[in-house]
Write a structure and sequence with these properties.
This protein has 337 residues and is α/β, with parallel strands linked by helices. It has eleven helices and twelve strands. It is elongated and about 75 Å long.
Length: 337
């Protein structure tokens, strides 16, 4: 084999669903020795990695790195890599991720925007219970997305997809990002874009809806805090399908309790289950008691289409590794090659 081995690659994966084979789930074109292992808190037992060439997962820590003496690649069937500890990645290992979630996440973003703005959940619940208070003759008029301003913080794949949908609703779209060179791409999308902190402040202060769609890295942890939320209008909504820790937990809760913003839709959280049956609350603050928030369990991008597209990308990278070819979606800031 051109990868320097005289045997198939050994690839560690979580168990595939009953009725499916590993090769069907991860559609490689080369011979592979699959090592299926249960993952607890998104990690296999580190000893499983001792003879592995490839590890497929979203988490990698120092104990795993010490055990993975032959590892050549860490492949993520996900976009976020904030749970890969850079110092734990052994020397000579390539780390690559996969995307393909922007379409369903953008659909979720626009769906919750409509639900929040039209007060759909409260209206449906009250009317189902025989209450006509949401009837316009008694409630008054409702708002609409048409002609409003949609703000995007982080103009990557998700931000671009949301911008296209917001444009289809005839909304004005403004965006802020880290790279000045993104301006030409945004202009082609009909988006007013700028980079830097002043641009983000403009998005926060002028938008009816503020989307958080930046990755979680050191520079974005706590990016949206008390000051930033304080820039938002009282009738504006915050939407976060990115990572919970980009938005300060207490600042968001306090803003919702005090109604200093109109509401929020949150898909990514601060605490998650570790095993298959534990039930932790997603935050130390009781967001679930509030009626101006939509809460979902990090499912906005978890569609069959996303799963299949990511599996194809991961499988194609296994093929490339076996043939000694360059991988795609390589994460330079955590790879050690």
């Amino acid at each position: 084999m051109s990868n320097g081995l005289d045997r198939p690659l050994r690839v560690v994966i979580p168990p595939v669903p009953e009725g499916a084979s590993a090769g069907e789930w991860w559609p490689v074109s080369v011979d592979v020795d699959w090592i299926e292992a249960p993952y607890v808190d998104n990690r296999p037992d580190p000893t499983v990695l001792a003879d592995a060439d490839v590890y497929i997962g979203t988490d990698f820590d120092a104990e795993m790195g010490a055990a993975a003496t032959q590892i050549k690649a860490i492949l993520l069937a996900a976009a976020g890599y904030d749970r890969i500890e850079p110092s734990a990645v052994p020397q000579g290992v390539v780390v690559a991720n996969s995307y393909h979630h922007e379409a369903p996440i953008a659909e979720w973003v626009m769906a919750v925007a409509v639900v929040l703005d039209h007060n759909l959940f409260a209206s449906e619940r009250s009317f189902r219970n025989g209450d006509w208070s949401a009837w316009p003759s008694r409630h008054g008029s409702y708002r609409e997305l048409y002609g409003r301003t949609f703000g995007i913080i982080g103009y990557g794949a998700i931000g671009k997809r949301v911008a296209r949908l917001a444009n289809a609703f005839d909304m004005k779209v403004i965006a802020a990002g880290r790279r000045a060179e993104t301006a030409k791409e945004a202009e082609a999308d009909g988006v007013e874009y700028d980079s830097g902190s002043e641009a983000m402040d403009r998005v926060l202060s002028e938008s009816d809806f503020v989307l958080v769609s930046t990755p979680l890295i050191d520079a974005t942890r706590g990016l949206i805090g008390e000051r930033e939320i304080g820039l938002m209008r009282e009738d504006a909504y915050l939407i976060n399908p990115a990572r919970g820790h980009i938005v300060d937990e207490k600042a968001l809760y306090d803003a919702l309790v005090s109604n200093s913003i109109a509401g929020a839709a949150i898909d990514t959280w601060y605490e998650y289950p570790v095993s298959s049956d534990d039930q932790p609350r997603p935050s130390k603050y009781p967001f679930w008691e509030l009626d101006n928030i939509i809460m979902t369990p990090h499912h906005s991008g978890a569609t069959f289409g996303t799963r299949d597209r990511r599996a194809e990308t991961v499988a194609a990278n296994i093929d490339r590794l076996a043939r000694g070819e360059k991988l795609v979606n390589v994460l330079d800031d955590v790879s050690t090659i």
